[in-house]
């Protein structure tokens, strides 16, 4: 059994660790332990020195404030030292604080000024004749650093005092901080742009003020509150701290509205608990409250001890940052398919709550922090915000800890996890079949512009999913009346809202019958609505219509490799890949199969558009595959040199050069073809082209619609039909429906109460149809 270290040895170790923590916090702006851990080290050293006075050294960190200035900025000697405060963590310590003042001053009714203890950076502002002339950090309490230029960038710090009556020389003490909302916005932008993510608002404030270039400080969203004064010359301030704060407010300084005057122990503890309850909703971080004897005469009589005044005390809240160990990094799949990493940790108390899980935001954030299984980390919880890992303590990393990587398959459904180029988020591509996305899939599937199942709102969807009646969207088509009534009964019992008629056995069934009728009506639909209903990433109403128009057949669409979707105008590589990823997932295909088996049918199928035949060749396919260095010119050379995809796949590199490719391009193409997945995609795409070619009608069989190439805008209210119905009928005749009027608009259909679009059409001289003309045209051509 290892024996405890000797007091002298332990004291030396504590001093070393505290000094290192001070250096990291004050000089490097990169602390590696939490405030709670730091406080514990200091309290242990104080207790050790109290028990063994011979161990007390003049340079002990218990005798100093902050840290020695770094030398990066000019030193500023404080005319009145900026001292630290004694800390209290229990109610009894507050009672002892009040008792000592009462006994020393021989007063019963003690009046205190109480204020939130902001978690930022203490500074001193010097004013001469009302003008701001110098600003300094606290430093070691005696000497700070000149950060005047940086402080001038903080708009709420007055450059010239307001009003009149201020002393000739006035030093104002306060806290520079970063508001929570500003901190979150800064970090969110940093994550998006790959910049530096701030560990917490306090470090954001400290690091910002210590920038050598004031322009960098100006970019950070910093705020300030005044909480006291230092040197005062050539003038007199009020006799109490609270009155002085009121005077500072008159002179233009921001002072917290939460400051209060209270009496005795009960007043202090009542204030502490009140601020504690409000803490989560405050716009800034606080780590406790500060009590100060309100009258200056009493303060002077109480005096100081060591590095702290006897008349003031910091009453700390439970720490919002703590250190713990990551047991594993898991991922969560959200309702929209976003795959988010989170850390499972050893339990730790953070802000008074036991925390075992913390968010890691996204894979890029994990990589920036370099969080690994087994790491010791600093976890932060502020209010109701989900706890997050903000820093890794690299010195405590296990030697076998390996970098974390995002899983390639969804842990819920097994579908491929994909990431769009340039995006931070990863997604499960099993949109239709993933249980984690079930509610979102159902809601979209039933929506008006998809399968249009009237009466199936989100509340019913959530209950049907919760009670297991629906596992995927295809289960909608096997629901029975008994299922719906049982679901409603269970939901009402859960919510304790069961109507009296149900309790009495008189079950109202009309809503369920109507819903079943709506589900049955939706079985017959269009290809565009069906494709939109599947919830494919990036495929909305417009893209679904384009796919339906150009391919015309569900069985064809669901079997196409992704490069062939690029043959549709306005569909690029990103959207084509999203469609391909969705259709490549077996689970999604199985759901489509079940939908067809349960009676869903496409009523408007037709042969593919003959124009697709213009690009069914090897050269076009090679361009669509987005092979590195294979430009349209190089693809044309390859198309002329090789009979088909298989011939290209079998060709050695020198044959590629013979075909006219530069050596570098030939090597890049050969390397791409050597990857099995790429070779398989090339052959599958070539076979799909052949199948598509065989399905194409002759151009004469499919005449262009009378509105082919026309762009139409609808505005106002139509009496005979909804605008969506009118839009569909016009699109069936070849028109392209747009949402805004421009010079390229062919005509505008204007119903009752048409607004700005009609005005714009008239200004541009665009032809305008009324409803009578629209109906006559539709009757003539449909």
From TrEMBL:
It is an enzyme of class 6 (ligase). GO terms for biological process: DNA repair; DNA replication. Residues 702-782 form the BRCT domain. The keyword Kinase does not apply. InterPro entries: BRCT_dom (IPR001357), BRCT_dom_sf (IPR036420), DisA/LigA_HHH (IPR041663), DNA_ligase (IPR001679), DNA_ligase_AS (IPR018239), DNAligase_adenylation (IPR013839), DNAligase_N (IPR013840), NA-bd_OB-fold (IPR012340). Gene3D superfamilies: 5' to 3' exonuclease, C-terminal subdomain, 6.20.10.30, BRCT domain, DNA ligase/mRNA capping enzyme, Helix hairpin bin, Nucleic acid-binding proteins. GO terms for cellular component: cytosol. Its cofactor is Mg(2+); Mn(2+). Keywords: DNA damage, DNA repair, DNA replication, Ligase, Magnesium, Manganese, Metal-binding, NAD, Zinc. NAD(+) binds at residues 35-39, 84-85, 115, 138, 175, 292, 316. It comes from the Bacteria. GO terms for molecular function: DNA ligase (NAD+) activity; metal ion binding. The active site is at 117 (n6-amp-lysine intermediate). Its EC number is 6.5.1.2. It catalyses: NAD(+) + (deoxyribonucleotide)n-3'-hydroxyl + 5'-phospho-(deoxyribonucleotide)m = (deoxyribonucleotide)n+m + AMP + beta-nicotinamide D-nucleotide. Zn(2+) binds at residues 410, 413, 428, 434. DNA ligase that catalyzes the formation of phosphodiester linkages between 5'-phosphoryl and 3'-hydroxyl groups in double-stranded DNA using NAD as a coenzyme and as the energy source for the reaction. It is essential for DNA replication and repair of damaged DNA. Belongs to the NAD-dependent DNA ligase family. LigA subfamily. This is DNA ligase. It comes from Pseudoxanthomonas suwonensis. The gene is ligA.
């Amino acid at each position: 059994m290892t024996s405890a270290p000797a007091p002298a040895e332990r004291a030396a170790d504590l001093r070393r660790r505290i000094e290192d923590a001070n250096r990291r916090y004050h000089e490097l702006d990169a602390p590696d332990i939490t405030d709670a851990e730091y406080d514990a080290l200091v309290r242990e050293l104080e207790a050790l020195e109290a028990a063994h006075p011979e161990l007390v050294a003049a340079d002990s960190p218990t005798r100093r404030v902050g840290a020695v200035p770094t030398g990066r900025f000019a030193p500023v000697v404080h005319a009145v030292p900026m001292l630290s405060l004694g800390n209290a963590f229990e109610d009894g310590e507050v009672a002892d604080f009040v008792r000592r003042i009462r006994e020393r001053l021989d007063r019963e009714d003690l009046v205190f000024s109480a204020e939130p203890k902001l978690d930022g950076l203490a500074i001193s502002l010097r004013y001469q004749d009302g003008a701001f002339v110098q600003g300094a950090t606290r430093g070691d309490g005696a000497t700070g650093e000149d950060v005047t230029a940086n402080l001038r960038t903080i708009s709420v710090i007055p450059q010239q005092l307001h009003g009149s009556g201020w002393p000739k020389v006035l030093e104002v003490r306060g806290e520079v901080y970063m508001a929570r909302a500003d901190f979150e916005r800064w970090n969110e932008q940093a994550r998006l742009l790959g910049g530096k993510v701030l560990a917490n608002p306090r470090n954001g404030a400290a690091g910002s003020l210590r920038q050598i270039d004031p322009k960098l400080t100006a970019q950070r969203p910093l705020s300030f509150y005044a909480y006291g004064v230092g040197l005062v010359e050539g003038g007199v301030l009020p006799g109490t701290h609270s009155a002085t704060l009121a005077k500072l407010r008159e002179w233009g300084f921001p002072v917290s509205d939460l400051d209060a005057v209270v009496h005795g122990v009960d007043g202090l503890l009542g204030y502490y608990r009140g601020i504690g309850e409000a803490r989560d909703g405050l716009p800034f971080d606080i780590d406790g409250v500060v009590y100060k004897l309100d009258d200056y005469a009493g303060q002077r009589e109480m005096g100081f001890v060591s590095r702290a005044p006897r008349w003031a005390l910091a009453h700390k809240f439970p720490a919002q940052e703590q250190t713990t160990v990551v047991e594993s990094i898991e991922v969560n799949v959200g309702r929209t398919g976003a795959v988010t990493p989170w850390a499972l940790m050893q339990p730790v108390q953070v802000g008074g709550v036991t925390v075992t899980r913390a968010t890691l935001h996204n894979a890029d954030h994990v990589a920036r922090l370099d969080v690994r299984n087994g790491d010791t980390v600093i976890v932060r919880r502020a209010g109701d915000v989900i706890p997050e890992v903000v820093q890794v303590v690299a010195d405590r990393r296990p030697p076998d800890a390996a970098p974390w990587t995002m899983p390639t398959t969804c842990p819920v459904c097994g579908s491929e996890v994909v990431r769009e180029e340039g995006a931070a988020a990863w997604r499960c591509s099993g949109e239709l079949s993933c249980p984690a996305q079930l509610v979102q899939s159902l809601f979209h599937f039933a929506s008006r512009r998809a399968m249009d199942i009237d009466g199936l709102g989100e509340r019913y969807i959530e209950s049907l999913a919760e009670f297991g009646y629906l596992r995927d969207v295809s289960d909608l088509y096997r629901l029975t009346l008994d299922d719906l009534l049982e679901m409603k009964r269970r939901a009402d019992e859960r919510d304790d809202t069961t109507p009296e008629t149900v309790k009495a056995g008189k079950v109202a069934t009309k809503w369920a019958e109507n819903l079943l009728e709506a589900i049955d009506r939706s079985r017959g639909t269009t290809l565009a609505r069906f494709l939109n209903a599947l919830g494919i990433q990036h495929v909305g109403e417009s893209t679904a219509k384009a796919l339906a128009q150009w391919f015309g057949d569900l069985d064809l669409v669901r079997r196409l490799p992704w490069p062939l979707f690029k043959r549709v105008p306005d569909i690029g590589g990103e959207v084509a890949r999203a469609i391909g990823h969705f259709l490549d997932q077996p689970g999604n295909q199985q759901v489509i199969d079940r939908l067809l088996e349960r009676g869903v049918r496409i009523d408007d199928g037709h042969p593919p558009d003959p124009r697709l035949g213009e690009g069914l060749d090897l050269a076009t396919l090679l361009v669509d595959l987005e092979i590195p260095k294979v430009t349209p010119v190089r693809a044309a050379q390859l198309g002329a040199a090789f009979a088909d995809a298989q011939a290209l796949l079998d060709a050695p590199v020198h044959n590629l050069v013979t075909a006219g490719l530069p050596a570098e391009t030939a090597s890049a193409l050969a390397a791409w073809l050597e990857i099995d997945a790429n070779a398989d995609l090339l052959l599958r795409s070539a076979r799909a082209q052949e199948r598509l070619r065989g399905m194409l009608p002759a151009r004469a069989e499919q005449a262009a619609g009378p509105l082919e190439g026309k762009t139409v805008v609808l505005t106002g209210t139509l009496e005979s039909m909804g605008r969506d119905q009118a839009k569909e009928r016009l699109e069936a005749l070849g028109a392209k429906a747009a949402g805004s009027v421009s010079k390229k608009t062919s005509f505008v259909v204007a119903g009752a109460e048409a607004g700005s679009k009609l005005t714009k059409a008239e200004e541009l001289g665009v032809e305008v149809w009324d409803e009578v003309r629209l109906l006559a045209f539709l009757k003539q051509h449909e």
